[in-house]
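Inputs:
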Amino acid sequence: MFNDLLLKALNKEIVPRPPIWLMRQAGRYLPEYQKIRSQVTFLELCNNPELAVEVSLQPYERFKTDAVIVFSDILLPAQKMGLELEFTDEGPQINNLISDPADIKKLQIPMANEETYPTLTVINMLKKEIGEKVPIIGFSGAPWTLFCYMTEGYSSNNFNRAKKFLYTNPKASHQLLSKITNTLFLYLTMQVNSGAHVLQIFDTWAGVLSQEDYKTFALPYLRQLISDLMPLKVPIILYTNNSHHLLSKLSMLKIAALSLDWRCNLQEVRDNFGTSLGLQGNLDPGILLTNQTVVREKTKAMIQSLKNWQTGYICNLGHGVLPQTPVENVHAMLDTVFEIANESLVYAK
Ligand code: CP3
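Outputs:
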């Protein structure tokens, strides 16, 4: 039987318990991931369909999550556009980052097919393997977040090098953002054609820009990407971090749900923007480092903080699972949610 809880929640239908999946549900906190990862590099893993399918399914097999997110990384399209991407112990590293407007002309808008993107093969295989049991989530970064990595070269807290490029070269920045947007549109379209039921767009670095600059540089491309994907009729979840100041603009996008970090109060966001905007999130991943009692309490408190969690709400973290997370704490979070169906009287308000 198909587990349609996630699709129902995104469609604002009443559900007996919220669906749950976790950002970075596949990854280093899982011993079965570590085992595979000890034999291949991260990029090899992303580009090897058999292994990537196996790793995508690990959290589903262990926890019975309500969705499977395809195993890949938001930076792969940047590599396909022409950047030299590496993953070191410190995270991603781009060796020929964009530091001059002339660099942008060299970038391609790659064709989206299985040869360019093994991730499409992974989605196809996942569809055959579990597509009739549970929804498959495809994803990409948002144009702005990819711009950050392409011009900064590494992860950063403030993306100052990216900002320097942006403010020094606004015209070239628009050109780069436009190229990224076209690349992502082709890639996400093909993810849906390959079998993704839902798309999540990660704008992790939305919060580093002011309201005005987000409106000028980031929002138009995000809006274009989302509206160009509309004809595919697939629900889109948008993740942003540290973006209180942007919520009124983000809430106007044609998305099925907004995935929020732990700094936001879910009910406050709902009061401000209404029930037609689905919400996802937003437990602090730091809570999963504690113990099962704390995890259970905080998970219940998060769900109860919403007056009506029965419609338009998806349980998740406010950011990805941290590598140091004890597996039993992830079990505790999921079990707390699974038990709600039996306890709904306790939770109903
Ligand atoms: O399970 C899933 O969620 C699917 C896989 C997934 C990964 N990255 C795997 C990964 C997804 C959806 C992402 C998204 C991603 N990647 C984002 C957006 C979400 C977020 O976390 O903000 C970003 C900014 C990246 C870029 C990235 N990839 C960074 C900054 C790093 C290094 C930090 C880290 O956690 O190691 C990565 C590496 C990465 N991506 C790993 C995994 C499992 C760890 C790689 C390893 O095995 O060594």
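Remarks. The first strand starts at residue 68 and ends at 69. The pocket of coproporphyrinogen III is lined by residues 23-28, 37, 42, 69, 71, 73-75, 87, 91-92, 139, 155, 202, 204, 320 (CB under 6 Å).
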